[in-house]
């Protein structure tokens, strides 16, 4: 916040400086002409002074407006973008601090839960061999085993969130993880009459763990399908754009997952990346948190834009590999 106030102060000072310069210029202009008049004619008429005062007044007004406009343009062109980046950095730092402390707790709890779950599952499997298939006891055993498996998957997600594995970086084409997930997900999407479109506008190389990126993209496509429900379109897209300002701006590649779903309500957006927050009955609320951490380990970011009744777009923003 102090940095933001300093930026605004600089913009105001620039505007004030321009105003002072404008007034000083007009004052100099007026007295110079008065001196010229006196040099040529010792008697300066009232009309001549009035004319100079009018020139000074209108010059001051015009230059004052230009000074104010200069201050506004400086704020919009330089200060406002810097403020936006500052706020984004503050949000990222706050989220990382929260994830770090929560990750330590989650790892300990998940580790303690996993061991007894394994013992229970082994015991259920042993008991199942003694039960008659089709009996009520056998069906209860199968049901309990299924629930144990679901709990194991939750523990697996918690551990992936708390202790994400380090990426195995290799050079990959930007479209590779997208192309690989299409045959995996297309059959299931067709069953819900959801069209999976591909729109590859760029295919630069990047340093990444293709499996981890594919894990993020699969999660995003499944979320998009859940949001649509029936009858819609999911578009996979790649494109590039510069990030930063000036000649030193770095290009980045963007992998997008866009859907034609209902969009994300404002109250959900506020907690979208919070661990364990979910709007699904069977979700763990860790998918987007894990995805964001994977992108951070790739020196990238996970961004989104949404509009109610028009859909949502998630973007994986990654640096392009330098030649």
Q: Could you give the topology of this structure?
A:
Blueprint: H1 2-40, H2 46-128, H3 136-162, E1 170-173, H4 176-191, E2 194-200, E3 205-208, H5 210-228, E4 232-243, E5 250-259, H6 266-269, H7 287-297, E6 301-307, E7 311-319
Parallel strand pairs: 2-4
Antiparallel strand pairs: 1-3, 4-5, 5-7, 6-7
Helix pairs in contact: 1-2, 2-3, 4-5, 5-7
Explain how this protein is built:
The N terminus is likely disordered. This protein has 3 domains: 92 residues; 65 residues; 150 residues, Heat Shock Protein 90. The chain is of the alpha+beta class and 323 residues long. A hairpin with a 6-residue loop joins strand 4 and strand 5. 62% of the residues lie in helices and 16% in strands. The two termini are 38 Å apart. The strands form 2 sheets. It has a 5-stranded mixed beta sheet with strand order 2-4-5-7-6. The longest helix has 83 residues. Helix 2 runs antiparallel to helix 3 and helix 5 runs antiparallel to helix 7.
Main features:
disordered N terminus; alpha+beta; 7 helices; Heat Shock Protein 90; two-stranded antiparallel sheet
What is the count of structural domains?
3
Distance N terminus to C terminus?
38 Å
Largest sheet: 5 strands, mixed
Number of helices: 7
In terms of DSSP E residues, the strand content is 15-25%
Task: Offer a concise description of the structure.
This protein has 3 domains: 2-93; 98-162; 170-319, Histidine kinase-like ATPase, C-terminal domain (Heat Shock Protein 90). Helices cover 62% and strands 16% of the residues. It is built from 7 helices and 7 strands.
